[in-house]
Specification:
Blueprint lengths: L1 E6 L7 H13 L4 E9 L13 E7 L5 H4 L22 H13 L4 E4 L2 H10 L5 E6 L8 H11 L4 E4 L2 H10 L6 E4 L18 E5 L8 H14 L4 E5 L5 H10 L6 E5 L5 H4 L4 E4 L8 H8 L4 E4 L5 H4 L6 E4 L4 H13 L1 H14 L5 H17 L1 H29 L25 H8 L5
Helix pairs in contact: 1-14, 3-4, 4-5, 7-12, 15-16
Length: 446
């Protein structure tokens, strides 16, 4: 079976890129796999690509490339949703290249990996293929306008895959998709090549994009309390982003310049985690929490905020890590100090973390995808009927709303059925409202 995975830019650094490459390698054990990268900005990918996986770039954004000289490269995208945060990186040339590739594909399964790409998937991938949208961001991380557009396109797909059970439940509740399977499958996080941490390094490590939502400022402030009690411990934050200058100012202002360090991006991150005794996360929200699992795979216990949605499904509080309330710097500091105070407990948690993280081995996750593929093929006709029934029900609901609106607010102030002026506004009482209420009650149900 041929499987195509669609990526924004396989040549860059990011959690979605890592997990897509991991999934592609795991699926390549049984299938013919290709990764189609919308963009290409450098000669060689930053992450290693399994040699069994074909990498197909569509638009070359390197300086001097033929694609950069194409006039369509300067035209705004028409098909990529404007409400998607990557919209400015897309162009009419990308639209056309993606559409051409998908219309010509002979893949049996096509998997998108971000909202705008999933719209491409819904619009252009052949219906004979299984079309699966992965959601690496939380439902609530999308704006209202984008959610409305996604709902319209996702209704035509075979499945939507989230990274957590909690997010799958949100999609089922807030984005009804008749005939579309909504299922949680966690990301693959393979075991690192190097040895696990021995727990002796007096280092608290953290990793991620330096952006406000990751709350590295809260972590730095919590570490100031740790440093006051344990001045020989260090905080190392790995990653790059817009908050770097502000975080460095905070570190300097708290007098932590010799104990807290912003190292910049590190890849592979496991080599850094293996030097640490504790890994910390202070995020306000996480769609999954790749760094948490990567730390656990290195035999390092994690102290994390119990934010929506991933940490609570990854960490068993008190067993392989500790969970603290989001935004609570004192609780974060107390949890870090508790693990530093008790090396024996820290060692037990490290061993438990190493064992727990095997849930994210490539084999079991690839098997869950294989089961999903098999079930989607087996239920295709039944799901098509559910989709058709859902479409009819939606149309009936819209018609009912139009009828109610027409009855309650006649156009141009036309007389009501009683011959008087229309006074049947929402919340109005009196005899004149009775006919409108009765008519609305008898309208088709939603």
């Amino acid at each position: 079976m041929k499987i195509t995975l669609l990526l924004h830019n396989a040549y860059a650094i990011g959690g979605t890129i890592r997990t897509t490459l991991n999934l592609a390698a795991a699926l390549a054990d049984r299938h013919d796999v290709e990764i189609v990268s919308m963009l290409r900005h450098r000669e060689v990918p930053r992450f290693a690509v399994d040699p069994r996986v074909r990498l197909v770039p569509l638009v070359d954004t390197r300086v001097g490339s033929d694609d950069m000289a194409d006039p369509r490269f300067s035209e705004p995208a028409h098909d990529f949703p404007a409400a998607e945060k990557r919209y400015e990186q897309y162009s009419r040339l990308v639209d056309l290249r993606v559409a051409a590739h998908l219309r010509a594909t002979d893949a049996h399964v096509v998997i998108g990996t971000r909202p705008g790409i999933n719209v491409y998937l819904a619009r252009f991938a052949p219906r004979r293929a299984l079309r699966i949208a992965q959601e690496h961001l939380r439902h609530d991380a999308h704006g209202k306008r984008l959610r409305a557009e996604l709902a319209r396109h996702y209704r035509t797909l075979d499945a939507v895959v989230t990274t957590t059970e909690a997010d799958a439940a949100v999609y089922r509740a807030r984005m009804p998709l008749p005939g579309v399977r909504v299922q949680a499958v966690p990301n693959i996080v393979p075991a690192p090549q190097g040895p696990p941490s021995d727990g002796t390094g007096k280092v608290i490590a953290a990793a991620g994009r330096l952006v406000p939502g990751k709350r590295f400022d809260l972590l730095v402030e919590a570490f100031s309390a740790v440093a006051a009690k344990y001045p020989d411990w260090r905080l190392r934050i790995h990653g790059g982003g817009a908050e770097r200058v502000r975080l460095q100012q905070l570190i300097d202002g708290l007098g932590l310049g010799d104990r807290a360090e912003l190292t910049g991006p590190r890849s592979p991150i496991e080599a850094e985690f293996a030097k640490a005794a504790v890994v910390a996360s202070a995020s306000d929200a996480e769609s999954f929490g790749m760094t948490l699992v990567e730390a656990m795979r290195c035999g390092v216990p994690v102290v994390s905020t119990d934010c929506p949605l991933g940490p609570g499904e990854i960490i068993t509080d008190g067993t392989d890590g500790l969970l603290v309330p989001p935004g609570d710097g004192q609780a974060l500091a107390d949890a870090l100090i508790a693990l530093i105070d008790d090396p024996v407990r820290r060692g037990r948690m490290a061993a438990a973390a190493l064992e727990s993280a095997t849930r994210y081995d490539p084999g079991p996750i690839a098997a869950r995808y294989q089961l999903l593929f098999d079930e989607l093929r087996a239920t295709r006709r039944r799901r098509a009927l559910r989709r058709a029934f859902g479409w009819v029900r939606t149309r009936a609901g819209r018609l009912a709303r139009r009828v109610r609106t027409a009855v309650r607010r006649p156009a141009n102030g036309a007389p009501t059925a009683h011959g008087g002026a229309d006074t049947t506004t929402r919340g109005t009482t009196g005899a004149s409202t009775a006919p409108a209420t009765s008519t609305a009650t008898n309208a088709p149900s939603q």
